Structure formats: structure tokens, C-alpha cells
Amino acid sequence: MKKITLLVVALATLASGSVFADQITDNLKQKLKSVIPNETPESITKTPIPGLYEANYGMQIYYISEDGNYIVDGEIINLATRTSLTSSAISIARKDKIASMPADQSIIFPAKGDTKHVITVFTDIDCGYCRKLHNQMAEYNDLGIEVRYMMFPRAGLQSDSFKKAVSAWCAEDNRGELTKAKNGKSIPSLECNNPIAAQYLLGQEVGVTGTPAIVTEGGQIIPGYRKPADMLQALNQLAAAQ
Fold first, then answer.
1. What is the tens place of the pLDDT at every residue in 28-51?
2. Could you give the number of structural domains in the chain?
3. Which residues contact 47 (CB under 8 A, 6 or more apart)?
4. Which positions are annotated as active-site residues?
5. 125 and 58 in one domain?
6. What are 171-216's pLDDT values in tens digits?
7. Which domain CATH number covers 26?
8. Torsion region of 236: left, alpha or beta (phi above 0 gives left; psi -120 to 50 gives alpha)
């Protein structure tokens, strides 16, 4: 009987704690709405700092005190590990955003042999360094790096680069046609139901400002072109740091 009583008390305590946590979250949402009226946080979670909560607005992170009277727009550094909790939170949010786009909605160049890393590359068909990266695709793949392309026509959704991306996507051999387009060759103009606009908007949402932009499996961004061996080294280092 004593064990049952203790269990009931424990469950009641957990339920009470859960209700209290929900009340804090609801209060913080109301406080945040007064200063950020047109957006709703995707999550509000405790930080390792007592009394401080993380409000996640996708790629934007704010911190708010438990009473809702103070808000901080800045970065939290763990001095023991010399790591940024803010950057980690943004990477996780970016990773989740990328995962919301099914893999079969990208043009994939698979790794040869064992897959060591999977990268999502936001690319522009007419970008010089994007072409340089693409022309070394076999080397990336040979090193065990799978490349998943998402299109990011920098000139926008009405540009020639956008139309080329749509044509490449709609082709029966979209990898072959993409390769031709990236080498400056003309490809047939095609239209179909395609994800190019969605990929472009996703790129903007996750913080892509130039191409190529490489997103790791952990959600970190590696900006710009990297030689295959340098890319592998960077990916290994980032994976080891997680």
C-alpha cells in the first residue's frame, strides 16, 4: 500500500510540474507576441541557464527570462566546451527544415561504396563555383560523399537560371541534363510539376545567401566551394565535434 501511495504522489507531482511548465510556456508566448506580433515561436525550451528559456523562430533564436520581463537577442557560449548553444540550436532548426523536403525532391548523386557523409548543396546552374563543384562530382562521390542538390537560382524565380533548373528537373535523365546545363550546354525547355520554387524559398528560409551553400547532416552551413579532399576533412571535423 505504501508503494502505491508513493507512486500516486509521484505521478501527481509530475502532473503538477507539467501543468506549471505549460503555464510558463503560455505566459512566455503571450509576452513574445507583444514584441514579435506577427510570428509564433516554433518551440520554447529551457536553457542550461536557470530561469532562461530559448524561443525558437526557425533560424532566429531569442532568449527570454522565466517571468517574461527580459528578452535577449544574442549568443550563448558554453565556456567549458567553447561551443555556441545558439549556433547549435540554429543548426538543429536548419536540419529539421531541410528534412521537411523529401529526399526524392532533390537530384541525388550517390556516394560510391560506403556513404560517409550526406550533404545538401543549394546550387545555381549559372554559378561558376557551383559548376566547379559539379565537375568534380565523381571525386566527392568516390570519397563517400553523397550530394543532394536543391536549386537556388540567385536571380530569382523568373530568371533564366530558374527555367534551366526546371527543365533539368523535368528531364527523364535529370542528372545528365543538369550536368549538360552546368557545362553551359543548351537543354530542352521542359515544364512539369516541380519543387524548384519550394527549394529556392527553403534556401532563403535556412539562411542561404550565396551558392554553392553546403548543408551538412547536422544542419551546419559550409559556405562556398571546397575541394573534395577539403570537403571530406571539414565534414569529418564537424561530425566529430557533435
1. 988 898 888 888 898 899 999 999
2. 2
3. 53, 54, 63, 76, 85
4. 124, 127, 130, 154
5. no
6. 999 999 999 999 999 999 999 999 999 999 999 999 999 999 999 9
7. 3.10.450.70
8. alpha
